[in-house]
Amino acid sequence: MFVLGIDAGGTKTVCLLADGDGQVRASARGPGANLPSLGELEVEKVLHEVMDSVLAGQPTAPAAICLGIAGVDRPHDDAIIRGIMRRIGHKAPVLVVNDALVALVAGAGDDGPGIVLIAGTGSICYGRDENRRAARAGGWGYILGDEGSGWWIGRQALSAVMRAGDTRGPATVLTARVLQHFDFEQVSDLVHEVYYRDTRRRAVAGLSGVVQGAADDGDVVARQILSDAADELVLAVRSVATRLEMRGQQFPLVLSGTLFRVLPTLLSDVLSRLAEVAPRSQPKVLDVEPAIGAVRLALAEARGGARIPQYL
After folding, report:
1. 10 Å Cβ neighbour count for 67?
2. Which residue segment(s) compose the domain that 299 sits in?
3. Can you give the CATH number for the domain in which 298 is found?
C-alpha cells in the first residue's frame, strides 16, 4: 500500500509518496496552488504535474490521497478540488482539507488539542480541542486579511516608503533598500511597479527580509512593522484559543511557515507575546515538511477514514 500527501500553499506545492509505514519514497515540488488567487485551471496544472512526477512507474493507484490546500474551507471549494482530481484521473479516495490542518498534524500528530500558526506569503491560525472541535482566524487572502504575513509586512514597508517620500511619515532606511530591491532610482517608480505591472504577492512578500535587515540595523520604522506583524499573528492565536476554551490549557503550538525561519525578530516577538495569550502552550517551529501531515491523514483515510475536526 502507498498513499499521497500533498501540501499546496500560496508559494509552493509539495507532494510526497509514502508507503504503509509512512516512510517517504518519492517527492515532487511545484509552484503554489492557492485556489482563490490562482484559479481552477492553474491549480489543476500544478497538481497534475507533481502527482505525475511521484507516481511515475507505479503499477497501482494510491490507497488514498490527502490534499491540504490553501484557501479551501467551504463546500463549494471542496467540490472544485474534487472535480480537479477526477479530471486528473487518479482513482483513489481523496481527502481535501485546509493546509493549516496538514501543518498541525505534521507538528502535533492527528489527535489531541493543538494550534498551528502559519506565517508565509499569507497567514492563518487553526486549532482543534480535545473534542475535535476546530476554529480558525485569518487566512482570508491578501485583500481581506493575511495580517502579519510576508505579503502584509511587504505591503507595510511599501507604505512606509511612500509616506516617507512625501514627508507624511518618518524617514527610514527602508526607502533606499526597497528601491535597491526593485532596482529603481526613485520612490515614484514603485507606483508603476505595483499598479501597472501587477506585481505578484510573492515579490511583495520578498520585502520581509529587507524589513528584517533594516530592523537589525536599528531602523525604528522597520522594527515597528515587525512588532505590529507579531501583534496581528498573536491576535489570531488568541481568537482561536479563546473560542476553543484552550487559553489556560497545555497544548502544542506549532509555528509553521517561512517567516519563522527567516525573520528572527518576528519569531522572538511572537514567542514573548504567546506567553501572555496562552502561557501553558508549548510553542515549537515546525521542522518537517507540512506535507508529512497530509501523509498521516491519507494513511488514516486508507485504514478506515480520517477523523477531521469540525468547525464550531
Report:
1. 29
2. 2-109+289-311
3. 3.30.420.40
